[in-house]
Amino acid sequence: MGLIYEEPLPILLPEAEALLASGEPALIADALLRASLSQVEPSWVEAASLQALDRPELAVRRSATLALGHLVRRYGHIDLDPTLAKIKPLKQDPALWGRVDDLLSDIQIYRKDADQTQRRKLKNARAAHKRGLAEIKRIMSL
Fold first, then answer.
1. Helix 80-87 crosses helix 116-140 at what angle (to 10 degrees)?
2. What does each C-alpha distance from 1 to 4, 7, 120 come to in angstroms?
3. Residue 139, CB half-sphere, CA atoms under 13 Å: how many?
4. At what angle do helices 42-52 and 13-21 cross, to 10 degrees?
5. What are the extents of the domains in the chain?
6. Of the candidates 22, 30, 73, which has an alpha carbon nearest to the alpha carbon of residue 49?
7. Residue 79 has what DSSP assignment?
């Protein structure tokens, strides 16, 4: 059975806050994605997504990473330093490699307010991630 795409329903801040407060991983993941695609204040979604990256549930971390990518694509902004700090440990998790790479790519392509130092930092982070993936593939092929 393949995956089935479901259009995320719009969400307002009070509902998003309630779903996050529920503690239920599936509801948290859903709230983050819906909020990132709705008219919820982007800074709130960014903060909630960064906080969700600390949760142990893979589905929540995947959704939080995807939500951050949605934000940077929609608004052209994301706070780079805390985002890079939060996703650094995620690069060690094979289940998140693709999402981390997608997020780094989204930031590199869509972030409009980056200065040269931030662009260089992002480029280095993305290159390090790619080298890590290549090394893991090499080791797995032995």
1. 10
2. 9, 19, 42
3. 6
4. 10
5. 13-140
6. 30
7. -
DSSP code of residue 111? -
Write down the residue that tokens 């330093």 correspond to: 81
Burial of 73 (0-12, 13-18, 19+ CB in 10 A): middle
SS3 of the chain: helix, strand, coil, percent, to 5: 75, 0, 25
pLDDT in tens, 55-78: 999 999 999 999 999 999 999 999
Write the pLDDT tens digit of every residue in 90-137. 988 999 999 999 999 999 888 887 666 777 777 777 777 677 666 666
Residue 38, SS3?
Answer: coil
Can you tell me which residue has the tokens 């407060």? 21
User: Which residue is associated with the tokens 């805390």?
Assistant: 82
